[in-house]
Structures
1.
Amino acid sequence: MRISQKNENCQRPSHHQPPSQTGPQAACSISLKFPKSARILSKNHYHGVMRAGKKLLGSALSIDYRLGKAACPKMGLSVSRRYGKAHKRNRFKRLAREAFRHCYQDFPSDLEINVAPRYPTQPISIEIFLNDFQQLIHKILLQSPLNT
């Protein structure tokens, strides 16, 4: 048990302020985080993106996508247990979030994507994943109504 002392905080400077809260408060900004504003969260939202009927297949992953419904780019992740144990599924999710942050500036503002692995238990390097992700996003950009 800890007992507080009388002058415990006297070493802290009087002008000390806690760090400012930045992050999900900004509607569509993204930094090194993956804020809630950039996520697909609900079951209905996932189904809406999958029902849109637009799917692209890469060598290591597949992307379901929809244009025209969101205010800012959003991404969802679907990795089933067939892919492997938890550490493999978590690694895939980390790679997908990193690729999303890396390519975020190139996305149309109304893009929603759902990323899933194509083959179970296939080890993927970051280079292969990023290359595949960028190629699929490039195909989406070519198919978007802004480019036609």
2.
Amino acid sequence: MPCTHKDSCGLFPVISLSSALKIWQTFYCDGKYETCLRYQRSLKGEKVAPNLLPNGKELDLIVENKPERRPAPATGVPATAAAPAKPAAGTATCSGLYSYYLRFRIQNMQGLPEKIIQELRKSGIGIDATITKPAPVAGTRCLIIITDQAPELDLYQAILRIETIEGVIAKVKSIPLEKHDVMMAA
């Protein structure tokens, strides 16, 4: 049974439009909504932060009418929340802004996933989700990252740098999610 708060949830429109965030809708909104922290807080009459995810973590964007993306730091200065508006999640654009599914085969080295994430963030690429799971080869694992929308060129330049990091043992698999949605609909 789907969640009774879908219509009033500030996050639902964002996750329902973005293929990168669709897993939240499947698991919480259409599944175990009773375990959703947003749902639980709204039942108690508590204020629910617009970027609060169902599992209690915060999405690294500001959810208003449109999600916003943080710009790349210019000179090592941290990005601020005052970012230019980006296209609505799930919207394919002509300018090459897409969310990406990235899969890295990496060695079990302490701190390696953080180095990879740091390299993406240095390029101004936001992270929507990360998953680490064992790989079929002993001593390795798969790091899966779903990115926020980013320019293709910036992402591919970051991937080239990441593939040179010690412990990254295979070419990075990348799928632009909105492009995939458009191709699947055709």
